[in-house]
Design a protein that fits this description.
This protein is of the alpha+beta class and 140 residues long. The chain has a single domain (4-139), classed as HIT-like (HIT family, subunit A, 2-Layer Sandwich), CATH 3.30.428. The protein has helices at 9-14, 59-79, 127-135; strands at 22-25, 29-33, 43-47, 84-88, 104-109. The protein has a five-stranded antiparallel beta sheet, covered by helices on one side. Strand 1 and strand 2 (29-33) form a beta hairpin.
């Protein structure tokens, strides 16, 4: 963690300067309970190597990280007897990212728990094709 932006609350947690309830750790990742959970079992998973968000993470760290996210999500769903799981990540302040260190929230969900999903809309005629045409060239 040598980047100047790496002094986040999560960097301090990784160094054990802030106490948390760790549920999983390996050489590249750390998973711990969120201090302000949506539901009991709400867990945060962070890479130990700092990156601002998933879009900036190197491929080797990403591979290890996503394996940990899957492993922890399965454990949280089972342990909390959840009906479902939300695996959420906010990238950028406009999307709600408050801590600029890559992290997924793993949130156990239950039928009738009151969570509201994002509202949906419709594309105008021709708009879907225009949007797809902007994205496709960037994926080649």
């Amino acid at each position: 963690m040598d980047h100047p932006d790496s002094e986040t609350v999560f960097a301090k947690i990784i160094r054990r300067e802030i106490p948390v309830e760790v549920v999983y750790e390996d050489e590249k990742t750390l998973a711990f309970l969120d201090a302000h959970p949506n539901h009991p079992g709400h867990t945060l998973v962070v890479p130990k190597q700092w990156s601002r968000d998933l879009l900036e993470m190197d491929a080797d760290t990403l591979q290890a990280y996503i394996r940990t996210v899957q492993k922890v999500a399965i454990a949280v769903k089972t342990a909390m007897n959840a009906d479902g799981i939300n695996i959420d990540m906010n990238i950028g302040a406009a999307a709600g990212q408050a801590v600029f260190h890559t992290h997924f929230h793993i949130i156990p969900r239950y039928e009738g728990d009151g969570f509201k999903h994002f509202p949906q809309s419709e594309y105008k005629p021709g708009e879907m094709a225009e949007v797809a045409a902007k994205i496709r060239p960037l994926l080649k």
